[in-house]
Structures are given as C-alpha cells and as structure tokens.
Amino acid sequence: MHLIDKIARRSGEEDEGARIHAEESRRRYGRIGPDKRWIFDIIRVDLVSRGIIRCTRWADKDRNQSRMYKLTAEWRDRPRRQYPTPIERETPRRPDTRETPPWARYCVEIATFDLAGMLREIMTFAGVSADKALELSAALNFNAIADEIERVAGSAAAVAATEHMAQVWRWRIDGQCKIGRDPNGERLHTPVTNLGGVWRAHLGFRGVDGLVCIDARNSQMPLVASRAVADLGNAADESTRDFVSVCAAGGFYEETYRECNGRPFADEGEREAWKSQIMKDWFYCSATHQARTAAGRVLAKRWPQIHAWLLAYKRAHGVTALPCAMQKWEASLWIDQLVPALAARSIPVLTVHDSVLVPADREAEVMELIKSIYATAEIRADFKPERLSTEHTPKRARLLRKALGYNERKDCRPLARDSGRFERRDD
After folding, report:
1. pLDDT tens digits for 253-302?
2. What gap in Å lies between CA 205 and CA 186, rounded to an integer?
3. What is the rounded (10 degree) CA torsion for 58, 61, 62, 67?
4. What is the pLDDT of residues 344-379, one digit of tens each?
5. Which string of b and e fits 294-318 if b means at least 16 CB within 10 Å?
6. DSSP-H helix ranges across 198-267
7. Is 160 exposed, middle or buried (0-12, 13-18, 19+ CB in 10 A)?
8. Measured between alpha carbons, how far is 312 from 316 in angstroms, rounded to an integer?
9. How many CB atoms lie under 10 A from the CB of residue 323?
C-alpha cells in the first residue's frame, strides 16, 4: 500500500486529493508489490496498448488473486528482425585491449549448427514423442515447441528449455552475432563461447566430418604454477615442485579434494561442485578468506610456499590481479598465438577460452601446435582431446539434466536411473 493510502487509512478519512495524488504517483512511478519488487503500472498499460501482452485473468479479491498477463500470439509470431551484416558488429574495444584475430571471426561466420537436431534432442529428453519432436523441429516453430514441452514436462522444463533455444535462435535465425574481447581478461567472446557446453556437439563446418575439442586440463592452475616458479626462482622448495607436478598432470582438483576430504571423487557431479568451491575458497578470494577457510588451512600444510606466495600476491596487488593476469596469459596462448598458427595452415577453429574446436582429422596437428606453444612459454600442462558427439551416454544425460535445470526442479523426477526423461510429480 502506498504511504499516502496508509496515512489516510490511519486518520479514518479518505481525502479525495490524496487519493488522486496517490493514483497519479503510482501511474508515473510504479508501486511496491507483495514480493517487495517495484511494479511499473505505466509500462504494463503501454504493453497492453501496443498489443504485446493481454490480460488472461482478472483480479478477484475474494480469491486473493491478481491479474495475469501473457504475450499475445500476434507478437510471438511476428516477423523476426534480420541483421544484414551480423559478423561485422563488434562490441566497443578499449584502446588497451587486443584485437580479435580475423580468422577467429571468419570461422564463426562459416560455422554450421544443427538447430533442428538440438530441438529434437531437447524435446525427446523432456518426454515428447519422437514423431512429434521430428515434426516440430522440422517446422522450427519456437512457440509450438515451448508449448509442447510445457504440456509434457511442465512449465519449469519449458522455461529451462526456452532459455537455451532462444540463445541459439537469436544467433542462427535472427542473425545476432556479437564478437569481442573482454577488457579485463582479454578472453574472446562469441556465440560459441556463450553456447552451453552440451550443445557444442551440434556445431560443425561445411565439408568437415565431426569436431574434436582440445581442452587444457585444470586450465589456469598450470599458469599459476609457472608464475609462482618464476617469482620464487631458486627459492622454490620441494612443496612448490610438487604443486607444479600436480598441476602439470592435470590433477589439481582431484588432489586437493583428496587432501581436504580424505577420499577421491564419488562421481562427476561431485567434481564439478568442488571445482567452483576450491577456487572460491582458495584462489578467487581475499587473502583473509583464503587463510581462514578449511581448504586454505589444509593446503597451507601441503603446499606452504605456494599458499604464502598467493597470500603475498593478493595483499600486494589485490584479489583480482592474479586471476585477470592468468586469463590474459591464457588468451595470449590460445587466441593470439594458436589461432594465427591455425590460420596459416587453413585449419578452421572455434575457440572457447581454454579450449578449441577443430576438425577431428586435424587433431594431431593441432595438439602438436598447442604443445609447442606451451613449451615455448615454459608451461607444463596436460591436454585432453574429446570427440564431440550427440550419442546418448550417461555423461551426456547428466549434462542435459544440468542444462535443462533438472537439479533445480522439484516437480520432476527421472523415469529411470539412466533415463533423461521427466515425470511430473502429483504429490
């Protein structure tokens, strides 16, 4: 209730001028809703007048229900805006940010994406019949697909699927393609980097039989180890050399989890959760937080010199200095050095920060290039090639459940242990 309404109610009288003023104030500036969020009535009225939304349920004080609005069918099915030259559109670049390699931009332009295959996979996973999924994916009717998923698996599944479909739709159908470098870490951001990892199996190039993803294991930790060794020099002790060996073998997350919990990972989901947890408690945090966390205290005993070096670096340069420096170093290796080398060999490539997607038949050649770049920079690291495939496996089912919000949905459960379909809860 508006403040003026409260004052009028307390005084036991309803001043006409105060009421008119309150209505005008709400019309111009909005009001606070029951969920403590600001509601702008004037925007709602404008959307209704433009035919963008319509009221589907009127307010009923006896039932304690408010009005409900939905997008109109005319607005949802309107002709989509087309961008004539989407690849040339680029985010503003700061003077001190490196330029995007032309080959990386060109490869995004020539990349293909099996949108119909992605839509079929989403609908089949949600429980839509194979024939219906084939029909809707062929028609590329975005709204019909969302309505069918909502009918079969519920609104939560439809919302999660819509978020992923809309991102690809804007790129492949509407032609929206923004390419640019992050000014802080100088990473290259494209529609491919913004694409969910599970959907990259639908990417490809014309005339190329399958892609392979070459990924640096543990990503930034080998860079951190190399920087620590360079700063410590001859003062590096045995614990530092052990840290370098662990990072070079790609076992940082496994080793730290075993050190802190006394056992290895039970499953891949536990590993994914630990990756964010250990980086939050040890790397992407202040020196005070690092020293106080349980993981920080345990790792201070395992790698005391590295722990002390991290604390000193954060106190001298700030919390974000080292992560940004590592991202810039990583970008210089994968974007500024590897991409031009691949361009010289006419190898198409799609970059995703610390990994690249390249034709499967050029895997050995690309692996040799990236290893030589790391060796020249005196960085010991391990690389993991993985063939991209849409074949149904337990790992892919887990990624699909995560991408479509299964873990956050309480109204759905799997039909079987290894099944990706959803069953509505009635209890």
Report:
1. 999 999 999 999 988 878 888 988 998 889 888 999 998 999 999 999 99
2. 26
3. 30
4. 999 999 999 889 999 999 999 999 999 999 999 989
5. ebbebbbebbebbbebbbebbeeee
6. 221-232, 238-248, 252-261
7. buried
8. 6
9. 16
